[in-house]
Amino acid sequence: VNREEFEVYYQPQTDAKTGAFTGAEALVRWNHPERGLLSPGIFIPLAEELGFIGSIGSWVLKKACMDAATWPAHLTVAVNLSPIQLLDRRLVRIVKNALAEANLPAHRLELEITETSLIGNDVQALAVLNELRELGVSISLDDFGTGYSSLSYLHRFPINRIKIDRSFISRVPNDPDSVSIIRAIAQLGTSLGMKITAEGIETDEQRVFSAGGGCDHLQGYLISRPIPYKQVACLFAEAVLQKPAA
Ligand code: C2E
Ligand code: CA
Ligand code: CA
After folding, report:
1. What pLDDT shows up at residue 150?
2. Whose alpha carbon is nearest atom 35 of ligand 1?
3. Prior bond to 33 cis, omega within 30?
4. Beta bridge partners of 113
5. Tens of pLDDT along 188-232?
6. Model confidence over 18-41: pLDDT tens digits?
7. Does the pLDDT of residue 165 top 90, yes or no?
């Protein structure tokens, strides 16, 4: 963080019906001086283990809010939270400060958590999530379907959006079980008042299926890979210019 070797990439998300951009997910990268661009799958688990995730996570949050504040005002930014961050008593203040410093309205920030964050920490996690929701931030449940997929969690925690894990989407359309699971998650989530994102859309077939199967937002390589800030800012600005006047 001090050597400014981290960089935030953004993966655009679209409206499943119209194809218009709805926002982007912030995905951190480490520009290592010798090893090149490192993926978070390599260093996030280490950072969690070594106690650095708080400072990296706060930096990502701050940067993502600053960057999103320069995008057209209808677009949101999603930031991943490690379970350790969710249990940090300073989190609500860190989020509040990041929004204030960037002058970003809270409704433009989504925080992504996983079920692992909730297991065994119900009481504390619930209190933190309620405080975050009071700020006006929304909460997404990431990688849904891979963990416990507990219905009681969906019901008890203030969750705005479910992100269906890529492992199900990647088996569409050939695996009938995955097709059924996606439909069932989308129906269940929707009837509980949640929005649904399909992650890891790589083919047009997967896009069409997810849009028809009850997912309102799409994310995946078919739409765009994660890209640096400059590129995503250009993409969003161009899309606004191309949009026909309402
Ligand atoms: P995630 O939150 O599930 O993020 C989605 C991952 O799937 C990203 O990998 C993205 O590049 C990849 N992906 C997106 N679309 C496709 C697709 O169509 N096909 C395939 N095969 N992959 C796709 P990435 O950027 O390597 O991130 C890996 C994980 O690292 C993330 O998974 C997230 O859990 C974690 N991570 C990333 N940034 C942060 C961060 O700032 N903080 C924390 N705590 N975790 C982060
Ligand atoms: Ca995520
Ligand atoms: Ca995910």
Report:
1. 82
2. 40
3. no
4. 141
5. 999 999 999 999 999 999 999 999 999 999 999 999 999 999 999
6. 999 999 999 999 999 999 999 999
7. yes
Q: Compute how many other C-beta atoms are within 10 angstroms of the C-beta atom of residue 106.
A: 17
Closest C-alpha to ligand 1, atom 2: 80
What pTM does this model have? 0.97
244 alpha carbon – ligand 1 mean position (Å)? 33
Q: How far apart are CA 35 and CA 193, in angstroms?
A: 45
Question: Ligand 1 atom closest to Cα of 81?
Answer: 44
Instruction: Give the position, in ligand 1's atom list, of the atom nearest the Cα of 222.
Output: 18
For residues 220 and 230, the answer to whether their CB atoms sit within 8 Å is no
Residue 202 CA: nearest ligand 1 atom is: 18
User: 111: Cβ below 6 Å to ligand 1?
Assistant: no
Conformation bin of residue 220: beta by default, left when phi > 0, alpha when psi is -120 to 50? left
Expressed in angstroms and rounded, the spacing between residue 124 Cα and the centre of ligand 1 is 26
